[in-house]
Amino acid sequence: MTDSTAPYRILFVCLGNICRSPAGENIMQALVKKARYSEAITCDSAGTMDWHRGKLPDARMRQAATEHGYEFKGAARQVLATDLKDFDLVLAMDRSNLADLQALDPNGNDKENIRLFGSYCTGNEFPEEVPDPYYGGEEGFHTVIRMVENGCEGILAEYKNKQ
Questions:
Q1: Does any domain span residue 1?
Q2: In sequence order, which residues have a C-beta less than 8 Å from that of residue 98 and are 6 or more positions away?
Q3: What pLDDT sits at residue 87?
């Protein structure tokens, strides 16, 4: 972005935009609010597919979020090629999502903005990719929330260090 007064914009991307990417968006927004950076950082989420367009985050993800002290909001949407230019940081939840995002940028003009979310996680507790909990059990949703909390804290720390 060229306007230094504009907020830093972060987009979280997963497959359907009902589990992992809404977790990124909502957890990051909660951390940003707590750190009093709401004017400086904005967040959104999207899916590489449009299967769930307009739907709330998955009920199991919302339940797990509530148990961790979060309220998840938002409606699913599909990522657009223009998002790669409109957002300062576009975070793919897994390598398949990363490949889909890179396909939206065939000339590599926005490759510096597109990253794997797991690269912001610290410690050895978490894998490089955020696992999709959709077809698994309840614990998978809690694992995703813990991993996303860790990665979002890493994103916020990096942002603060650049200020």
A1: no
A2: 92, 114, 116
A3: 97
Question: Among this protein's residues, is 132 annotated catalytic?
Answer: yes
Q: In the structure encoding, which two tokens stand for residue 14, read together?
A: 């997963």
CA-to-CA dists, residue 18 to 14, 49, 90, angstroms = 8, 11, 17
Helix runs in 35-137, H state only: 59-67, 83-86, 95-103
8 A C-beta contact, residue 2 and residue 35:
no
How much is the pTM?
Answer: 0.94
How many Cα atoms occupy the beta-carbon half-sphere of 6 within 13 Å? 10
43: annotated active-site residue = no
Catalytic residue among 19, 20, 44, 58: 20
Question: What is the chain's alpha carbon radius of gyration, rounded to the nearest angstrom?
Answer: 15
For residue 14, indicate whether it is catalytic: yes
Give the CATH number, domain containing residue 116.
Answer: 3.40.50.2300
